[in-house]
Design brief:
The protein has three domains: 166 residues, P-loop containing nucleotide triphosphate hydrolases (Rossmann fold, 3-Layer(aba) Sandwich); 175 residues, 3-Layer(aba) Sandwich (Rossmann fold), CATH 3.40.50; 80 residues, K homology (KH) domain (GMP Synthetase, Chain A, domain 3), CATH 3.30.300. The protein contains twelve helices and 15 strands. Helix 9 links the parallel strand 11 and strand 12. Helix 11 packs across helix 12. The radius of gyration is 27 Å and the shape is elongated.
Length: 445
């Protein structure tokens, strides 16, 4: 589950407006009348690359009987029990009220992590109220205007540590619990449907010499050695400039959607013509989506010089797709079945790497050795760039967070050095890696 961010505050400070801003649509009713929100409302929210669950709550009132206000307050308390962080919203134009002070004390006593949000800070009308909020004792306020979208970058910085911490502590999706989602992709007429039929052992999909028989992305349930697999046959992907008909555009969109929801993608190519530009375009799309990639060189039985053909494919991969070094290449013939037995072991191995998690201690030992071998270059003004700490935020694909003093001064070449080092040191061949930079706090500031 994503981190839960609960929005609280006294009535009419703009909680529902902020909620709507975070979820990107008008889910919560908004009006100048206090007390419009009564039940707590949840929605999937995002702020930049942060994804979390936002909860809009009723306005906090000092009521402890069986009245409607008291029941609304108890609903808010229930929401707080699941909160990774609480946003206490105050109205900067109205300043800090006794009710704001009361609920700030209540949240502090409850031990919830709180981010103080000063809303309605557009223009200069909220400056005095913004300074007043320091007396609540909840740290630096985040000045925003929920209605106009001002201050969202500051709110991102305030929420990021809590959302990242929740993601790091959450268990990975267990790859063994559900079927592996496996998509077969490639250019038209390379044998994708024939490959699915050969794997499942029956004429499940229509095949033929004509290009473009498959239009929809067809899903087939299958079991391989006791492991459930959801096979998806996709329509052939031609160069964008050649796609003119409306029906083909819909087929392409369906294929791209199948790739986005897959876990592993087998890119089937015609070994008699080698790795073409369109094959690489599809491969880059798979990598950009963060899916595990396996190359299958079909029609291998028709290749005369197999050694030269394999060397050509690997050389093209090395030069044109360096961001996923070590992509497995399986030579096979789906028509005769020769070499097909090697495809699923390669898929399972790629899936295992895609799911891999590395402990924090070995990661930081590796970082110390990597920076000692090749220190990061000096930043602007000759200032040293310090790489402080690295941790794996999540798997599927492996995603790492690197805390550094000056992320803007780390060149792309040095980041590639770190990514290649991670791939080699922790045996992560052929899978997309994500390396995100975070600015660590200066302890002397």
């Amino acid at each position: 589950m994503p981190a839960t961010v609960v929005i609280v505050g006294r009535p009419n400070v703009g909680k529902s407006t902020l909620f709507n801003r975070l979820v990107g649509q008008r889910l919560a009713l908004v009006d100048d009348t206090p007390g419009v929100t009564r039940d707590r409302r949840e929605g999937t929210a995002s702020l930049g690359d942060l994804g979390f669950q936002a909860v809009d709550t009723a306005g906090l009132e000092e009521a402890f009987d069986d009245s409607l206000a008291a029941r609304m307050r108890r609903q808010t308390e229930q929401a707080l029990d699941a909160a990774a962080v609480v946003l206490l919203v105050v109205d900067a134009r109205a300043g800090v009220t006794p009710l704001d002070e009361h609920f700030a004390d209540w949240l502090r006593r409850g031990g919830w992590p709180v981010v103080l949000v000063a809303n309605k800070c557009e223009g200069r009308t909220g400056e005095a109220g913004l300074l007043e909020t320091y007396r609540l004792g909840l740290g630096d306020p985040v000045p925003v205007s929920a209605e106009h979208g001002d201050g969202m970058a500051l709110l991102y910085e305030a929420l990021q540590p809590f959302v990242d911490a929740e993601a790091a502590e959450a268990p990975d999706e267990n790859a063994e619990t559900g079927p592996i989602r496996l998509a077969i992709a490639g250019r038209p007429n390379v044998g994708k449907s024939t490959c699915v039929n050969a794997l499942v052992g029956e004429e499940r999909l229509l095949t033929g010499p004509e290009a473009g028989i498959t239009r929809d992305a067809i899903s087939v349930a299958w079991t391989y050695e006791g492991r459930e697999v959801r096979l998806v046959d996709t329509a052939g992907l031609r160069r964008k400039a050649r796609v003119a008909e409306k029906l083909e555009k819909l087929s392409v969109a369906d294929s791209l959607r199948a790739i986005r929801f897959a876990e592993v993608v087998v890119l089937l190519l015609d070994a008699t013509v080698g790795l073409e530009k369109q094959d690489l375009t599809i491969a880059r799309h798979v990598v950009d989506e963060g899916r595990a990639l396996v190359l299958a060189a079909n029609k291998w039985d028709l290749v005369a010089d197999r050694q030269a053909a394999m060397a050509g494919i690997r050389d093209r991969l090395e030069t044109s797709l360096p961001q996923v070094k070590g992509v497995p290449v399986v030579p096979l013939s789906v028509l005769t079945g020769k070499g097909l037995e090697r495809l699923m072991p390669a898929v399972l191995a790629a899936h295992a790497v895609w799911n891999r998690r590395v402990a924090t201690a070995p990661l930081n030992d590796w970082l110390a050795a990597a920076t000692e071998r090749h220190p990061p270059p000096m930043g602007k003004g000759g200032r040293r760039v310090r790489l402080r700490y690295i941790t794996q935020a999540k798997a599927r694909p492996p995603t790492f967070v690197l805390f550094t003093s000056r992320p803007e001064d780390l060149p792309d070449a040095y980041l590639r050095y770190l990514e290649n080092g991670l791939r080699e040191a922790f045996d992560l061949p052929g899978t997309p890696l994500r390396l995100t930079l975070r600015k660590g706090k200066n302890p002397y500031a």
